[in-house]
Amino acid sequence: MGRIAYVNGRFERHARAAVHIEDRGYQMADAVYEVWALFGGKLSDPEGHFARLERSLGELKIPMPMGRRALTHVLKEAVRQNRVRDGLVYLQIGRGVAPRDHAFPNPPVSPSMVITVKAIDRVAAEAKAAAGVSVITTPENRWGRCDIKTVGLLPNAMAKQAAREKGAAEAWFVDELGFVTEGASSNAWIVDAEGTLRTRDTNANILRGVTRNTLLDVIRENGLKVDERPFTPADAEAAQEAFITGAGAMVLPVIAVDGKPVGAGKVGPVATRLRRLYIERAIATAI
Ligand code: PDD
């Protein structure tokens, strides 16, 4: 059986699923999204992703097309129909379809909603984590509301492409003061020379990563030192370890920044342990 997508109330063959040409998500990036990791067919970090979805929609004044319970049901049905155990669920909710006009349609139209599900090869993902990945840095050039998870991802896509062309897995944006904000699709962390975990604070213009937030809980529960304080690429080179977090990456060790090794240039014990602890937590709390 092939992949199935959900589009505006219907489950359809993924290969044939489509939205209208005047969907505002397509024309104006007037849409938000969420990505859940799937463990054994269950949605990871449910509370964090639902809360952020509601916040993103609220900031754009797009109504939730259905309540949390109904949405959970539809997401789980999409997972079931795709028979995926380990993978990612993508949800996009947009303002809807209306004749092109920058201002919001008045009267409002019903929001559009799309769900896709894809499988992940966990064995390959673990091998990637065991080897570690490289990142490049690139000047921060995004708008001022990166806290809203919109589909306006062109700077992120360009940064990721630049990374790929240099053989790196991720690009870290660096602001005008020289500090790393976050990755193109992940949050950025180091274990600094003193052994303190550091990641950018959420007053900065970054996405409030759900994985980041859960990992902060795990870190504190395990009595590790953590400081939500900016770091520079030079701090990353001088650090013991670095890693990225996200629904796709989970906790993924970084061994080089702009071609320069982080610490010993090898995957370190802290990132390895945190990856294991995060996955244990995600499995235990998935729904
Ligand atoms: N990206 N920062 C950015 C810019 C992101 O796009 C993401 C997630 C994160 C990490 O957030 P979370 O831990 O909630 O996944 C940080 C998703 C996975 C994506 O775009 O596919």
Care to describe what's here?
By secondary structure, the protein is of the alpha+beta class. It has two domains: 4-120, Aminotransferase class 4, branched-chain amino acid transferase, N-terminal domain (D-amino Acid Aminotransferase, Chain A, domain 1, 2-Layer Sandwich); 125-285, D-amino Acid Aminotransferase, subunit A, domain 2 (D-amino Acid Aminotransferase, Chain A, domain 2, Alpha-Beta Barrel), CATH 3.20.10. It is built from eight helices and 15 strands. It has helices at residues 24-28, 46-60, 68-82, 122-131, 154-165, 210-221, 233-238, 269-285; strands spanning 4-7, 10-13, 31-39, 42-43, 87-94, 112-119, 133-139, 170-174, 180-183, 187-191, 197-199, 226-227, 241-246, 250-257, 260-261. The strands form two sheets. Strands 7, 8, 9, 10, 11, 12, 13, 14 and 15 form a nine-stranded mixed sheet that branches. The protein has a six-stranded antiparallel sheet with strand order 2-1-6-5-3-4. Helix 6 (210-221) crosses helix 8. The longest helix has 17 residues, at 269-285. The protein is globular.
Topology (elements, then pairings):
Blueprint: E1 4-7, E2 10-13, H1 24-28, E3 31-39, E4 42-43, H2 46-60, H3 68-82, E5 87-94, E6 112-119, H4 122-131, E7 133-139, H5 154-165, E8 170-174, E9 180-183, E10 187-191, E11 197-199, H6 210-221, E12 226-227, H7 233-238, E13 241-246, E14 250-257, E15 260-261, H8 269-285
Parallel strand pairs: 7-8, 7-14, 11-12
Antiparallel strand pairs: 1-2, 1-6, 3-4, 3-5, 5-6, 8-9, 10-11, 10-13, 13-14, 14-15
The structure holds N-(5'-phosphopyridoxyl)-D-alanine.
N-(5'-phosphopyridoxyl)-D-alanine (PDD) binds at residues 35, 156, 182, 185-187, 207, 209-212, 245-248.
